């Protein structure tokens, strides 16, 4: 099958944020897995670096850098005026030789470009939002930083696609509230590279003190204050926060300074360490260094941190929402708690850190769960079946 993957807001080569796991890199992983299954795959990304070649080959599939918009890193909201041009470029490209049998849009900007490109054709569109503005706004409130036009454009996009791929059951509920029929939504979570994320291997050096690890974008609304409050219920423990700016920029980062001041006022500053940005390929070493991984964001569509931690054999304590709720099995691979319940968070972390046998059992079960249900091969197989379904339905309709 000929598959076009459209990820309009970024080119693939870039530093990888461990909290998002490098979103374009996740598209690249899907492309590689589909190619390995025998499909003819092409990835379309906006050319945001003038030094990038127009076309490259990676793992058997082609990457085409679309020359629209600024030749620089650009905030997503400022790419909206270029969506029509991006779609027009795709239409012209597909009218001269190779054309996809199905198009899969990624993120709201990519989906808008894909839908624009095929609107006068019979090519079906599958859409992965990866996150939804309306859901982020509801969970994050004033901390939501998305562009104002995002939510109405996502609302319009759901009326233009054949099928939406959700990361978790919470996202399914949100999409149906937005007007998409339940039959037009399928849950296909991202996979985990289990060859890299596994219990065996090196880990970051640490002292004898128990370690809680949190991986975050280091932005307001991502649950770090709850963890700092919870530390007051736990003695002799280290909280390591990975993510955010480069390590040498931590001192000048507004959110980092705010959190450290909050930790000082809460009396836990000596227990907190902010690491800053870590390349994604180094994250297995950080996960393996932890006794417990805490996932406490108020919005987590994918639950990627939880799945990668579990693949490394580390139990997860997190809030029961989004991808974390789907991934973690309460009292089997970790603990799920009511969002915002700081007392339950602190007590659960304290009890788990004090129980070596329980942590071992949770970690062992976590590895089994990931290897059975969250591999990239399983993700690609599910997408393959969805592509076949929408192509068949278009042909029949």
Provide a descriptive summary of the structure in words.
- The chain is an alpha/beta fold.
- It folds into two domains: 2-191 and 375-396, 3-Layer(aba) Sandwich (Rossmann fold); 211-373, Glycogen Phosphorylase B (Rossmann fold).
- 39% of the residues lie in helices and 17% in strands.
- The chain contains 14 helices and 14 strands.
- It has helices at 23-36, 83-94, 107-118, 133-140, 150-158, 169-177, 224-230, 254-266, 283-288, 304-311, 322-327, 342-353, 356-373, 376-396, and strands at 2-7, 40-46, 55-58, 61-66, 102-106, 125-128, 163-166, 185-187, 211-215, 238-242, 272-276, 292-295, 316-319, 334-337.
- It has an eight-stranded mixed β-sheet, sandwiched between helices. A six-stranded parallel β-sheet has the order 11-10-9-12-13-14, with helices on both faces.
- Helix 2 (83-94) crosses helix 3, helix 3 crosses helix 5 (150-158) and helix 7 runs parallel beside helix 8 (254-266).
- The longest helix is centred in the last third of the chain and has 21 residues, at 376-396.
- The radius of gyration is 21 Å and the shape is globular.
- The protein starts with a strand and ends with a helix.
